Fold this protein.
Amino acid sequence: MATRKKSTSNSDDTIVNVVDGSGSAQDFFEKNQNLVLGVIGAIAVLVGGYFVYQNLYQAPRQSEAVEQMFQAQFQFEQDSFALALSNPGGGYGGFLDIIDDYSGTKAANISKYYAGVCYLNLGDYNQAIKFLEDYNAKGEVTPIMKYGALGDCYSEVGDLKKAASYYKKAADAEDNGVLTPYYLKKLGMLHEHQGNNSEALAAYKQIKREYPDSPDAINIDKYIVRVE
C-alpha cells in the first residue's frame, strides 16, 4: 500500500493512506461505468457529428453558394440592385435565394449585408434594416460598413437619434483611414443639422486631428469654423 508521512505540530509521524482518494474514484466508476461511458460516447458523437456537419455538409454548400453569388455580385456592382436581389440572370440565384437556400453558410451571411444595401438603395429602408441587423459582421471593414449603412437607413426614416448612434458605432468600430473619417463627417453633419454644435465640432476636429490626409479632411476647417 502506498503511503506518505505527514508532519504534525507534535512532530509525530502520521501515516496517511493515499490510496483512499483513488479508491473512491474507482468505486464511483465501477458503480456508474455505464453512465460515464455513455457521457463519453455522447461527447464523441457530438464532436464527430460537428466535424461531419462542417466538412461534409456545410463546406460543399458554401462552395456552391459562392458560385451562385457570382452573378448577383456582378449586378450589385452595376447598381442593378433589384436584379441582384432576386433575378441576376444566367440561371443564378439572387442574394435572397442565397439567404434562403444556403442558410448557415458564410455566403448566406454576407448576402444579408448585400441585400440590406440593395434595399437601402431601392428606398425600402425597413427591409434594409432587417437584413443589415441580421448580418453578422466580421473582420476589419464590414462592421464599419454595417453600422454606417444602418445609420443611413435610420436617417432616411427620420430616426436621427438612432442614425447618430450608428454613425458613432461605425466611426468607433475600426481605425480605417477612409471609412472612419467618412462616417465621422456624417456624424458631425447630422449633429450640426440637429443644432448640436459641440458634438459636431468634436467629430470635425477628430477628422482634422487623426485623419488629415483623408478625402473627408479636405475643407474640414470650413465645417469647424461654421460650428464654433
Remarks:
- The two ends are 86 Å apart (CA to CA).
- The longest strand covers residues 3-7.
- Confidence is low (pLDDT under 50) at residues 1-22, 47-53.
